[in-house]
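ok so I'm stuck.
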Amino acid sequence: MPNYQKIDYLMYKILIIFILFTYQALPSEFANTQSFGVYFFAGNSFHTVDFNEKFKSDLKDDLAYIDSTFNNFNKGSGDILSFNIDYNLRIFNDFYLNIGANIDYDYGEFNFFFNDLININGVATEGLIADKIEYKLLNLSSFMGVKYNIYKKLNLRLLYNLSHSRTIDFSSYEKIIKPENKGVFKQTGKKIRNEFIDTISLNQISSSLSFGIDYLFPTSVSSKLNLNPFVYVNYDLDGLMPTQTWNRINLFYGLGIIYYFGEVPHLESITLNPDQIVIPTINFTYRINKNGKEEQIDSLIIEKHIFNTYSFYKNDGKVNSTQKTNSKNIGKFNSLDLHYKIDQVFNNDKLYFNLQNQNEKKIFELDINQNIFIINSDEFTQFIKTSELKEIHLEMLRNNKIYKSNSQKINLIFSNITQNWYEYNFTKDFTIQEILNNLISFIADSKKLNKLIIIEANDSALLNKLAGEIDYFNILIKQNNKSEQIKIYWENPF
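replied:
not stuck anymore, here's the structure
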């Protein structure tokens, strides 16, 4: 036979290691969603038992009368009072790790009814007798499992419990119940006989499974403190006594108080009274997305690129050209990712992210319940003019009042290297040789310094011929069907 106690201990050790590993591996926005709860609850227990000869031998008293009756005690019920504390840690979107401990007091009875002769005023009369065994049991338990958010603030729980029971107290007696308030037993002259009280030492650890639902009722606008009514069922995997087949199912119902000392999940949108003054708490962090990877940094690197465009065209057989120079700030990242959280959301709330410099301002309206906003580097850097400490913030409009988030300072660093890009546009009436004559010195320098040349046109045959004439392995051929001109551009080799 396997040693179930050792198996239980092993499972618990594995679960504890899993908790520590999970906590270390969690992203910050999940690890920050934590709560602590205190619960008071009552319950009903339902028992099935098959007492055997060992039960009698465990008792200290020699109860001869029980030989013929103890086999009839096969079903019983009781009441439970319990106190519970627990801790929840968010591990996935709607899943939470739930660990805790509780102490419960279970007391109840087994009944067997039979008829026997009793004495009523000196006359032997048949009466209805209740044979009772009462028990009292104190359990210390720890549990571990998962909580799943089904809908809004409705949660489902599945828990694995380990309980330690040191002793179980028994008392037994037979009592006349009919006729009421009449008759006594001949042996005792009272309405009760065959009384005994005894205690059996258990000192065992047993396991059980719990399954149930609970719901959160916020007690404050911030939703940090919640009332938590619940109901769940507990099923014993092991018997209450190691020497008996004694199984128990418990039904629990009660009320808890939960406090979130981390982020509050599953915030609901509710209507705000016009005269209600509520100061929102808005927190956000920023990260950059660079080459497909999200990174946390303390500064943004910006490069200034100068674009020199030369356009060549023919007029009466003569070559004419125009020149244009413009500059653009380019971020060394693909996007700036804002992660924002709000303590409580009400109907008609609005959330905005502002980008601005001296002459321009761009406002993005955010989805309050989305919790992340991504702005690409082009949108961000077009508002940046000089290296500085930039303070960006989110703004919430609530009841026609503007509330700012906690400020997040971003250090903007402009690269000392200014990138120059040259672009040459030729109309289609230029020959390959004419194009090469205008570009020969630039092509030679670019080839020598291993710089990339990009050629664009809508004529694939022309592109291939031009690439062959230049005979340069660092050429990137791009067919652009929307282009009416031949474009050649590259980074300045100097």
